[in-house]
Amino acid sequence: MKLKQRFLEAVVKGDLGSIEDRGMVVTLKEFKKYFSDVKTDYINSFLPASTIEPGRVEMTKTRFLLRIASGVYIVHPDAIDETIEQQMLHDDIGDEAGGVEEGGENESNNKKTGENKSGNKGSGVLYRV
Questions:
Q1: Neighbouring C-alpha atoms within 13 Å toward the C-beta of 128
Q2: Strand, helix or coil at 32?
Q3: CA 79/CA 62 separation, integer angstroms
Q4: Are 52 and 64 in contact (CB under 8 A)?
Q5: CA distances (Å), 13 to each of 18, 37, 71, 80, 83, in order?
Q6: Helix/strand/coil for 111
Q7: What is the tens place of the pLDDT at every residue in 57-105?
Q8: Domain extents for the chain?
Q9: In 3D, which of 29, 33, 38 has the Cα closest to residue 4?
């Protein structure tokens, strides 16, 4: 699993960062402590490299943090929403459509027909709780 995925999943679970009025805030210090298993210098450059350029507000695939102070970052809300949606989709596929079993099919493999493993057509709608 990529560090970005691990990072966003930890934020969504509430294991990393803190919720403040302006959003989900993560400090470099707590990031390094949480990811102490990463033994490369990448740990020092991950947050700065993931920062959206000044003057921009839209996130990209590789830029999803806003720097608010030295060593203090806000996770872009769209990155959090995207991670939650991916988790919901993964949970839905794993629970109802055979998941990632070897040789099994799931809804994502049958987008053209709209059918899942059981042959039923799925609604294709995600609901946010």
A1: 7
A2: helix
A3: 10
A4: yes
A5: 11, 19, 22, 10, 10
A6: coil
A7: 899 999 999 999 999 999 999 999 999 999 888 877 655 544 444 444 4
A8: 3-80
A9: 38
